[in-house]
Structures are given as C-alpha cells and as structure tokens.
Amino acid sequence: MNLSKNFENNNINLQMDVQNLVGSSGDTNNNISNQQHSTKLSYEGNYQVNISSTNFELETITSSYTGLMRIYRLLYIADHCLSLRTEALLLSLKYIQETHFISLYKQIVDELKKQNIPLPNDFDSSWYEKTQRNYTNKLEKLDNDLRNFRTNSIKDSIRRGHDDLGDHYLDAGDFFNAVRCYVRSRDYCVTPRHMITMCMNVIKASFYMQNWSNVLSYVSKAEQAIESLETTTKSTTTASTISSMINPMDVTTTNNIITSDAILASRLKVYAGIAELATKRYKLAARHFLGVSFDHCSNYFQ
User: Fold this and answer.
1) What does residue 101 show for φ and ψ, rounded to 5 degrees?
2) I need a surface site. Which of 92, 122, 220, 247 has the fewest CB within 10 A?
3) Considering all CA atoms of the chain, what is the largest pairwise distance in Å, rounded to the nearest integer?
4) What does the alpha-carbon distance between residue 289 and residue 146 come to, in Å, rounded to a whole number?
5) Residue 299 has what DSSP assignment?
6) Has residue 230 been placed in a domain?
7) What pLDDT is attached to residue 228?
8) DSSP code per residue over 194-227
9) Measured between alpha carbons, how far is 139 from 164 in angstroms, rounded to an integer?
10) pLDDT value, residue 248
C-alpha cells in the first residue's frame, strides 16, 4: 500500500513553483495547463493499527470530513489498518467519483485490483473517460468565460472567474494551477471579504500540497482582513442597535455575520496550528490550537 505515502516528495517541485508564484499575481500568460498532478499523502512511520478491541466505526470517523480531505483520510486508514482496508478503499472509490480527480481514481482502482478486492457491482468502467471529457469541456468553458470577462473589463466577474477556475483545478487534484488561479484573483479583490475568500482558497490548496510556509503566509493575510472587517462590523453594530426598534432584523443579520467571522477565525487557527505542527514548531502550534473556540469545534474540516 503506497496510496498515502510520498506526498511530500511528489510536491517538492510544486511548492517551489508556488513560492515563485505568490510573489506576483499578474494576469500575463493565461495559458492554463490541464495537467493533473499525482498526489499522495505522507506521514512518518509505516505502522499498523489493530482495532479489534475497539468500537471504531469508519463511517463515524470519516463523516467529520468532506471533499478531498475525507478521501485522503480513508486512504490513510487503508494504509495503516488492515482490517478496515477493504472498506476504506471501496469508500474512497465511491467518494472520488464525486470529483474530477481522475489520476487518484486510477490509483485507487489499481490498488483494489492489486489487493484482489472485488469492484462494487455498480462499478462504472466508463467513469474515467467520461470524467476526463467533462473535465476538459468545463475547463474550456471556464477559460472562455474568463476571457470574455477580461474583454468587458468586469472586475468582480474576473475575480469570480479566477475563483471558478481554481475550484475546478482543485476538484481535479491539480493544486498548483488551483493556487495560481486563486492568487491571480487578488488584483480584483475590492473588499476585505473578497480578500478573505482569496486567502482561504489559497490556504486550502496549499494545505493539500503541504506547502506550510504558504499556508502560514495566507493565514496572516486573512487575519489582517478580518481585523479590518471587525472595525467595520463594530460601527455597523452600533448603527443597528440604534435602528433595531425600526427593523429588528438588522441586529440579527449583524450578529450572524459576527458569528460567521468568529468561526472563520477559529478555522484559520486550525490551519496555522497544523502547519506549525507539520514543521515541528510545537510551541507555536499549541498557541494556535489554544486560540480555537470550543464552540466552533463541531464544524466540518475540509
């Protein structure tokens, strides 16, 4: 089993490319490659876990994750728990078909065959070709949309166009191109909220690449944007309190925004803590984790 190993080695070049990329978010050269990067997770130690004396339920554990993070967790369990390997691989095959990550899909299918695990009865042998075709068609459409937005100089549409392209690359496991698109949206961010969205997107893609320095850099940028939002929110709260007798919904809306920003701040602490932990800066990691509110610990991590 090697599906969850050597991720760092496979991403060294990607990390170096991103370090060069994030210094500039210019829009010159929009020739977006459809190359997909093979990705595997890496954790120290090739250990095996025996869960025969526990009540460990795979679905219960993985239900705390969404998206690619859930798939990676399943592959990690498949690598390190023999008794759950079959179930974890079959579940990962199920969830990977909700994405365009065709390179990882092929690795999972190959691993199932290698382990002599029968493919599910509803296995779609044409999924690979159909998904590859859909990926290419959608990529062309998003790229054309972005070109049109540039031609018409629609600033907010250009920003969202870069985000849409980044999301598409991320869904396909092409994390380098995802980061590239997200970073390019920075020049079209006109509000702190836009900056936060851009930072969170870059953080998420960099997290999958295990580019920890990039994660920490954009956590800092996002926190600065949140600080500027807090100043605005305080002024809004005062105004809403005065007008609450006229429209009580104003206060409710403002409170919801404050709660949402607090959850976001906790999520940034989690990202920063994991990045520090991965680089063995344990004291800094502990400080970040202690800054996470317990009220926000039930949120899904993706």
Assistant:
1) -85, 75
2) 122
3) 69
4) 39
5) S
6) yes
7) 87
8) HHHHHHHHHHHHHHHHT-HHHHHHHHHHHHHHHH
9) 10
10) 52
Q: Which one, of 192, 189, 169, lies nearest residue 180 by Cα?
A: 169
Given the structure tokens 């105004």, which residue do they identify?
A: 239
CA distance 297 to 302: 13
Question: Tokens standing for 117?
Answer: 């695990």
Assigned token pair, 249: 């919904």
Residue 1: C-alpha distances to residues 4, 76, 107, 114, 128 (Å): 8, 10, 11, 9, 22
Tell me, yes or no, whether 300 and 240 share the same domain.
yes
Residues 6 or more apart in contact with residue 34 via CB below 8 angstroms: 135, 136, 139, 174
Q: Which two tokens stand for residue 286?
A: 């502990």
Q: For all residues of the chain together, what is the average pLDDT?
A: 82
DSSP string computed for 236-265: HHHHHHHHTTT-THHHHHHHHHHHHHHHHH
Count of the separate structural domains present in the chain:
2
- Spatial CB neighbours of 147, under 8 Å, sequence gap ≥ 6: 30
Handedness of CA 261, 266, 269, 270 (dihedral sign): negative
Q: Give the integer Cα–Cα distance in Å for 261 and 177.
A: 28
- pTM, two decimals, is 0.80
- Rounded CA-CA distance 285/273 in Å is 4
Is there a single domain that holds both residue 172 and residue 258?
no
Q: CA 194 → CA 21, 156, 160, 163, 188, distances in Å?
A: 20, 10, 10, 11, 8
- Say which residue the tokens 């996002």 belong to: 222
Domain enclosing residue 95, as ranges: 1-190
Query: Which tokens go with 91?
Result: 């579940």
C-alpha 302: how far from its chain's center? 6
87-128 pLDDT, tens per residue? 999 999 999 999 999 999 999 999 999 999 999 988 898 999
